[in-house]
Amino acid sequence: MIEYIKGELTELTPALAVVECHGIGYGINVSLNTYSAIQGKKDIKLYIVEAIREDAHILYGFSTKQERELFLLLISVSGIGGNTARMILSALSPSELCNVISSGNDKLLKTVKGIGLKTAQRIIVDLKDKIGTTGIEAADVLTVPAAHAHSEVYEEAIAALTMLGFAQVPSQKAVASILKEEPEAAVEKVIKLALKRL
Predict the structure, then answer these.
(1) Residue 144 and residue 117: Cα distance in Å, rounded?
(2) Is 146 helix (H, G, I), strand (E, B) or coil?
(3) Which helix (H) or strand (E) holds 134?
(4) Which of 186, 167, 16 is nearest to 86 (CA)?
């Protein structure tokens, strides 16, 4: 069982971080929250969840133990796999997610791709009593870092969405329309908004 991986961040996209540790490069799936937290850093530490399947060994990495705890809670819900849990943690920050669950806001949870009303309600019912143990303050504030160059944001957002499993053309349309509405939006915000439209 891998608890965490600490090393040099050699590659980073909004969906994947490559961390070199003692000559081995680990490809680690990350959420947008973790991507924002480690962006621009050289040496990082990611808390790991290993998903071992017949056809693959997948590593999910998180910048905080709390986010990892939420991920583990999400995948404990029937019908929620690693990628869906990561999608939820990319659309909402840990504190926003706690707020959504504790307030029973299934409508907001339903805006995440792959989450229908029944699944949203199941997440709320299953986790309402458990999220108190995570020690995360529930919040409903959206913070966005300073904007990057327009085209760079466009390229990064498309790359992230395709890595998350969305088709290229719909992703391009969604990102283009978001940047038209909010030209100053940071890549994380663009991806979050695109996740709700795709």
Answers:
(1) 28
(2) coil
(3) none
(4) 16
CA 20 to chain centroid: 21
| pLDDT(196) > 80 | yes
Instruction: Please calculate the CA angle 70-72-74 and round it to the nearest 5 degrees.
Output: 70
pLDDT in tens, 61-70: 999 999 999 9
Tokens 């990102």 appear where?
A: 175
Q: Which residue has the tokens 């480690």?
A: 38
Q: Which helix (H) or strand (E) holds 60?
A: strand 57-62
- Residue by residue, DSSP assigns 178-191 as HHHH-TT--HHHHH
- What is the C-alpha separation between 118 and 155, in angstroms, rounded? 34
Tell me the longest C-alpha to C-alpha distance in the chain.
46
184 DSSP β-pair partners: none
Q: pTM to 2 decimals?
A: 0.72
Contact 94, 120 (CB under 8 A): no
**Averaged pLDDT for residues 103-108:** 86
14-47 core/surface letters (b: 16 or more CB in 10 A; e: else): bbbbebeeeeeebebbbbbbbbbbbeeeeebebb
Cβ-based neighbours of 181, under 8 Å, separated by 6 or more = none
135 burial level (CB within 10 Å; 0-12, 13-18, 19+): exposed
With left for phi above 0 and alpha for psi between -120 and 50, is residue 146 left, alpha or beta?
beta
**Strand pairing class (24-30; 57-62):** parallel
